[in-house]
């Protein structure tokens, strides 16, 4: 599966390439899965826009941004499967497993009929199978309103984070545009630098697509206690799937990205798409979705490669999952870590006073559809996906009368087992 460039001769009848201008963890996990199946040696090539081997991208808006006295994360520290275990995948790991890397040379064109890609430098790459793992690109402000001015930063790559750190070293004030979890993480990191920080977002509440209004207010208050100002104005920015130059492979006009089936196959034979860019059947909720999250990036890549290399035929069955870790720097008075598994449907029941624990349960037609937990124990966090996937019938009144997060979770655990918990 070796990539074939204009300077290489054909060695294998089956070649695989993974273009990588954006998302790293999906490519990294795909490569690891090939190695685990004994199919990487000389058969695999990764084509990337960056000068680095795949790394743990979520760190860029968390520990990577910490000031020097707060023990910041740096490469090669997260050239590894931090969230899913496994050995450290440094550049040397790819060499040892005979995986070819083409750095700083992204794909600019594809010839579907000839099974070839052309890179920015003019290399012609021939593939037998192609996995598109291009992730998303950061949306940018228009130039006419200052989108390219010095001091305006967009984070997607290590180089972006490095440039931001240089600004943080000199800055007195930081303004974060958009109140999603990336914006929340960057604002929390700015607090570690003791800077005057403000979050500006267009919605009524912080992280509105995930949090309930009540929960959002709790987090807004937490940020304000840490000196972060919150402003709600009419402005919008985010990320978009990086489909260029693969538009001809087949796009989904409703959710964006490249349309795939439950094995991450596109409508073009031999071409697959995984991670942020894939519009896939979300089996548990019976709809087509795109998920921009590291957990899905890892799992979709693993599922795709296993389907490619083996007789695996079962449909990808993903449970949407989100989490964030903020204020984790050394000396922080309170470290925050939340997780949730859910579909955004039904009524909500909130338990706890955020001191530090709080839990929110989503209930529809008597069924527990999802749950969010702040500051839980490892055992409590392990309960969440079981609840969200099983969607058990639950006594809403009993849940509402719980006097603590621990009691509420025990009620939920009992509903999972079909027991009456008093």
UniProtKB/TrEMBL annotation:
UniProt domain Monodehydroascorbate reductase 3-like C-terminal: residue ranges: 319-399
Annotated FAD/NAD(P)-binding domain residues: 31-231, 232-300
InterPro entries, alphabetized: FAD-oxidoreductase/Apoptosis, FAD/NAD-bd_sf, FAD/NAD-binding_dom, FAD/NAD-linked_Rdtase_dimer_sf, MDHAR3-like_C
Gene Ontology MF terms: monodehydroascorbate reductase (NADH) activity; oxidoreductase activity, acting on NAD(P)H
Pfam families, per the entry: MDHAR3-like_C (PF21791), Pyr_redox_2 (PF07992)
Keywords (A to Z) from UniProt: FAD, Flavoprotein, NAD, Oxidoreductase, Redox-active center
Cellular component, GO annotation: mitochondrion
EC number: 1.6.5.4
Cofactor requirements of the protein: FAD
The family this protein is said to belong to: Belongs to the FAD-dependent oxidoreductase family.
Listed name of the protein: monodehydroascorbate reductase (NADH)
């Amino acid at each position: 599966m070796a990539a074939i460039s204009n300077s290489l001769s054909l060695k294998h009848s089956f070649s695989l390439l993974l273009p990588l201008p954006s998302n790293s963890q999906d490519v990294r996990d795909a490569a690891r899965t090939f190695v685990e199946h004994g199919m990487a040696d000389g058969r695999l090539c990764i084509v990337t826009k960056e000068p680095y081997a795949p790394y743990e991208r979520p760190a860029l808006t968390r520990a990577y941004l910490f000031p020097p006295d707060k023990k910041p994360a740096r490469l090669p520290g997260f050239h590894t499967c931090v969230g899913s275990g496994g050995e450290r995948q440094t550049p040397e790991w790819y060499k040892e497993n005979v995986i070819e890397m083409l750095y700083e040379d992204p794909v600019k064109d594809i010839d579907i009929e000839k099974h070839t890609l052309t890179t920015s430098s003019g290399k012609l790459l021939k593939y037998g199978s192609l996995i598109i793992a291009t992730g998303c690109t950061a949306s940018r402000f228009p130039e006419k309103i200052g989108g390219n001015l010095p001091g305006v930063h967009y984070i997607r790559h290590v180089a972006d984070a490095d440039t931001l750190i240089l600004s943080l070293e000199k800055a007195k004030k930081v303004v974060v545009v958009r109140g999603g979890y990336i914006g929340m993480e960057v604002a929390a990191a700015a607090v570690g630098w003791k800077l005057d920080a403000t979050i500006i977002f267009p919605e009524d509440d912080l992280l509105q697509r995930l949090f309930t209004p009540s929960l959002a207010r709790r987090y807004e208050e937490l940020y304000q206690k840490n000196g972060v100002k919150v402003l709600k104005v009419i402005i919008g920015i985010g990320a978009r799937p990086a489909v260029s130059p693969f538009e001809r492979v087949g796009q989904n006009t409703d959710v964006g990205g490249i349309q795939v089936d439950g094995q991450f196959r596109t409508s073009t034979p031999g071409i697959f798409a995984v991670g942020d860019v894939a519009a896939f059947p979300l089996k548990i909720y019976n709809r087509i979705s795109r998920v921009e999250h590291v957990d899905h990036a890892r799992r979709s890549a693993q599922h795709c490669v296993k389907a490619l290399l083996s007789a695996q035929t079962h449909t990808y069955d993903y449970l949407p999952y989100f989490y964030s870790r903020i204020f984790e720097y050394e000396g922080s008075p309170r470290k925050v870590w939340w997780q949730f598994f859910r579909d955004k449907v039904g009524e909500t029941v909130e338990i706890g006073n955020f001191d530090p624990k709080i839990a929110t349960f989503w209930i529809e037609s008597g069924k527990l559809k999802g749950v969010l937990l702040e500051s839980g124990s490892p055992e409590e966090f392990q309960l969440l996906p079981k609840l969200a996937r099983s969607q058990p019938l639950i006594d809403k009144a009993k849940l509402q009368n719980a006097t603590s997060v621990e009691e509420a979770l025990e009620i939920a655990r009992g509903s999972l087992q079909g027991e009456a918990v008093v």
